[in-house]
Fold this sequence. Notes:
By secondary structure, the protein is mainly beta. The chain contains two helices and 20 strands.
Amino acid sequence: MAATNPISNLTIDGATYDLDPDYLGGKEASGYLKRGIFYVEGSSTADGTWLGSHTDITEYFDGLTILYKINKAGASTTTLNINSLGAKTVYRYGTTKVTTQYPVNSVIILAYMADLNSGCWMVLGDYDSNTNTVPSVQCETAAATAAKVGSCTNHTLTAKSYVHVNIRYTNTAKSAITLNIDSAGAKPIYLNGSATSSSNYSLTAGTYIAYYDGTNFYFRTDGKLTADITGAAGKVTNKMTVKLNGGTTEGTNLFTYDGSAAKTINITPTSIGAASSTALNDLASRVQALESIPAYAGAYQEV
């Protein structure tokens, strides 16, 4: 189809273009032909409130793409405001927000999406690193400090996931120990299935694969695997259930084992509907008594 009112001989940065308004509107043409991708250096003054400017950006539109150099850390919700056109939330993918995954001086590619999340910036090329690799966390906290702090690039702490933790200094704090990764909050550390305390604090310098259940971190220093041997309720992936005669009452004829502690199940004849040993012995005695009656050797006479 022939173009309607085509714009010919448009010169931008020394290059000449013919624009067809049937395919590109003015603002899209400006964005795609002037620069393609705009480079914006952060001018933020507070974490999580990202700012920047560029003389060629006069409005937000679908597909507006920038290279953004971060000069302040992110926050639980991070926004970006270019040229005072409005602060828009920055997302990693889908509805997952950018928080503190990107350190200062990182350069990321952002595209503006007018119809997504009520207008937002979206990181291009990001993904959920939890589903691909075990993230590596570096912990440089002093030995005598119980509140351990770790950092990891491109990772969001997720329940039922593993983290590769490098503890630089052997812990000497004789108390409960916590681990806070990228300001996600201090989470209690369990060692070999038990909460850390004044008597359970021996976390030596080294590298560990720690399991996070959504509340606590579980470390093993005894050579056992971390997976599902944490000593906390629900750590067995598939709980085991024992039913006695199809029982439905927990603790009476139904017993569930979840790995939190040793469980003893006392199975008695009564609980499974079987005869007791006394009854069986009585029955055996009666059978034996019947077997001891001598057979009648005489002739039977009709009555």
